[in-house]
Amino acid sequence: MDKVNVKPKIVVTLSADQDQWESLYEKISDNELYIDIIEYRADLCGGEKAADYIEDIKALKEKFSDLPIIFTYRTHGQGGKGMKEPNEYYKLNKEIISEQCTDIIDIELLLYEDLRNELIQLAKEKGIQVLVSHHEMEHTPSLKELKALYQHMQQLDIDYSKVAVMPEEGRDVLKLLTAVYETKQDSHHHIVGIAMGEQGKLSRIAGGAFGSALTYGHIGEEATPGQLHVQQLKSLMEIYQ
Predict the structure, then answer these.
(1) Would you say residue 96 has pLDDT above 60?
(2) What is the pLDDT of residues 36-70, one digit of tens each?
(3) Contact by Cβ (8 Å): 113, 90
(4) Do 97 and 105 touch, CB atoms closer than 8 A?
(5) Comparing C-alpha atoms, which of 207, 167, 210, 218 is closest to residue 28?
(6) Residue 3 DSSP SS3
(7) Cα 201 from Cα 183, distance rounded (Å)
(8) What's the burial of 103, exposed, middle or buried (CB within 10 Å: 0-12/13-18/19+)?
(9) Mean pLDDT (whole number) for 83-112
(10) Residues with active-site annotation
(11) Are 105 and 90 a contacting pair, CB within 8 Å?
């Protein structure tokens, strides 16, 4: 049975220095009807310690209690600004999970296997959903490689499997969406596929037609190449519903 034609949830990616939060709260309020989930990008939010991030997340939850939060610390090697080494990355995410302040935790696939699996297990024990992510910032792997990535993630028994790629041509976007579609046929988990940059905008708008469960947008400046403002994103997505 065909399991595609998912209605993707719109995730807004937040990034702000400490003195910009009041302005950011206003932007979230102005766009709340277009947002399903908040992604708190710790590597873009100016803090240094877990306590700084926990304080921000608790403030977000107090003001926007109906919106689930994804905690993401994106490392430099995966396209983010975060410079923490694997053991530091592990300790930070462990503190966030232990505090139970987030609804979903983004864990990078390439983290050392023992550290990654321990974080996944701890999140499950704390009732936090797990999103395992992998970003290819320079190219798009083959269809076979993309499907293998998703299969590897599925074996971790997580809630969301996310792969993001940088396409060089339209066929790369089709490759990614095909991998999402074919993976979703045999999976009850949430599959997420995003092609970045201008070439990849179709995946953000029409990904649900291929089975992609999440799409990411912004309310100020794009956090990754090709992101659309959440209002524009929701309007364009309606074409495919």
Answers:
(1) yes
(2) 999 999 999 988 899 999 999 999 999 999 999 99
(3) no
(4) yes
(5) 218
(6) coil
(7) 21
(8) middle
(9) 98
(10) 135, 162
(11) no
Interacting residues of 2 by C-beta distance below 8 A, sequence separation 6+: 185
Residue indicated by tokens 């499907």: 147
pLDDT tens, position by position, 154-176:
999 999 999 999 999 999 999 99
Phi-psi region of 112 (alpha: psi -120 to 50; beta: other; left: phi over 0): beta
- Residue 46, classed as helix, strand or coil, is coil
- Starting at the edge strand found earlier in the chain, the sheet holding 69-72 runs 190-195, 160-165, 129-136, 104-108, 69-72, 37-41, 9-14, 214-218, 228-229
Single-letter amino acid, residue 49: K
pLDDT at 1 over 60: no
Q: What's the average model confidence in pLDDT over 215-220?
A: 94
16, amino acid identity: A
Q: Which residues pair with 105 in a beta bridge?
A: 71, 130
Specify whether the CB–CB gap between 230 and 31 falls below 8 A. Answer: yes
Task: Check if the beta carbon of residue 32 is closer than 8 Å to that of residue 64.
Answer: yes
Taking the CA of residue 138 as centre, how many other CA atoms within 13 Å lie in the half-sphere pointing to its CB? 1
pLDDT at residue 3, as a whole number: 60
Task: Tell me the mean pLDDT in the region 231-238.
Answer: 95
